[in-house]
Task: inverse folding
């Protein structure tokens, strides 16, 4: 009888200890992270608008969106910023900011977008995050001439591993300047529409080109940063980018970069080079020695050959764009009115500035950033190169060595050897 009682006691003890083990195992599992949130944080020009250093932890606010920048006073405009202190996932904490590359640069992505662009810009965000930013967690600035709606902010914030900032463009940066004859500008648009010049009749396109040429880097949200990477809706990145492109630019003394280059539509810029020559004559002190004139002109600067770097992709230095040289350059062009009396694009404006105001070795061609923006593709030449970077672009689509590309000119100007196999991709 006593032996039977002892066995029952042992069974009870085994069951008790088994239950305790299961309890401690279940209670020690990793907790679910809180849902991502956004909060509105006001900041002054030149300061971090989040007010929270990277890595600091604070209780997340409720999901609200209010007090968004109204653009009435650009110098003190409030802005929406997402305070992403943690990117923990179901399997544990994400990699700390900057660990992949060591020193983290003072840099941001920047996108000019409308609310209606949401489902096209999220495609671009996923491309950038998957191929690059999930390793580095850089911020992202969104700018719009109308207030961003709640859906745009919530969806984009949820996809981006860095902080997100949302700003409204000041009216004076998205309107006709006082010196522009609007009747003359209207007649130009009507004429271009009859001649079927792309975007020839568009007012908003002209405001966009002027803003990208002279004002995006002046926005209060951009003042805190030194480097930018421009991203537009519906782009693709075809290869992994396993190093910090911003740090590369700084370490190698680069100020401007590109992946695609081509010729501009002649009908849109008939007098642009005249304005550039006026600037050169008025400000010879700004023209760099050993510059990139050979990329821009075939006759030493007398005429423009219409080559430009395609500016829907740019990684560049914001301090250069804020320099007195670039300011004087843009002011001359803006005074002459070609953004409205013709249809000057920001691509030739940026490209000419880089070619004249920078040394040619301060401009970089990112061969390893495989990129698509309708209708052109940059796909790195060389099969092994593409395999190592897990690229999924078709090399037959590579635009670099086609007849309408200007990339060969850039190689020739810098006496760079073209990659093996480039002739197979020519027309």
Result:
């Amino acid at each position: 009888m006593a032996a039977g009682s002892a066995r029952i006691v042992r069974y009870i003890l085994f069951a008790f200890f088994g239950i305790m083990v299961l309890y401690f195992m279940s209670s020690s599992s990793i907790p679910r992270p809180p849902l991502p949130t956004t909060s509105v944080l006001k900041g002054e020009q030149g300061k971090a608008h989040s007010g929270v250093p990277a890595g600091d932890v604070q209780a997340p606010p409720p999901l609200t969106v209010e007090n968004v920048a109204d653009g009435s006073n650009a110098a003190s405009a409030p802005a929406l910023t997402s305070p992403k202190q943690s990117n923990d996932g179901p399997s544990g904490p994400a990699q700390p900011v900057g660990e992949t590359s060591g020193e983290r640069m003072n840099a941001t992505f920047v996108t000019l977008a409308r609310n209606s662009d949401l489902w096209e810009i999220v495609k671009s965000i996923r491309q950038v995050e998957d191929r690059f930013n999930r390793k580095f967690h850089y911020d992202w600035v969104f700018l719009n001439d109308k207030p961003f709606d709640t859906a745009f902010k919530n969806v984009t914030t949820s996809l981006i591993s860095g902080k997100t900032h949302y700003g409204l463009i000041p009216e004076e940066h998205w309107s006709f300047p006082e010196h522009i004859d609007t009747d003359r500008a209207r007649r130009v648009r009507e004429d271009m529409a009859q001649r079927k010049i792309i975007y020839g009749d568009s007012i908003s396109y002209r405001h966009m080109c002027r803003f990208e040429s002279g004002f995006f880097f002046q926005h209060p949200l951009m003042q805190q940063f030194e480097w930018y990477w421009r991203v537009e809706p519906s782009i693709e990145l075809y290869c992994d980018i396993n190093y910090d492109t911003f740090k590369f630019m700084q370490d190698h003394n680069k100020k401007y970069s590109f992946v695609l280059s081509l010729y501009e539509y002649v009908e849109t810029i008939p007098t642009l080079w005249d304005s550039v020559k006026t600037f050169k004559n008025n400000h010879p002190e700004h023209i760099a020695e050993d510059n990139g004139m050979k990329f821009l002109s075939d006759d030493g600067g007398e005429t423009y050959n219409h080559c430009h770097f395609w500016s829907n992709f740019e990684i560049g230095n914001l301090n250069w764009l804020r320099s007195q040289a670039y300011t004087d350059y843009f002011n001359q062009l803006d005074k002459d009115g070609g953004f409205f009396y013709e249809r000057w694009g920001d691509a030739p404006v940026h490209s000419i500035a880089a070619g004249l105001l920078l040394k040619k070795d301060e401009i970089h061609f990112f061969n390893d950033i495989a990129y698509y923006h309708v209708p052109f593709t940059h796909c790195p030449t060389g099969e092994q190169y593409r395999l190592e970077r897990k690229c999924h672009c078709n090399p037959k689509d590579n635009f670099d060595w086609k007849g309408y590309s200007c990339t060969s000119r850039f190689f020739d100007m810098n006496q760079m050897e073209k990659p093996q196999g480039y002739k197979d991709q020519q027309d």
Q: What stands out?
A: The radius of gyration is 27 Å. Residues 147 and 304 are 39 Å apart (CA to CA).
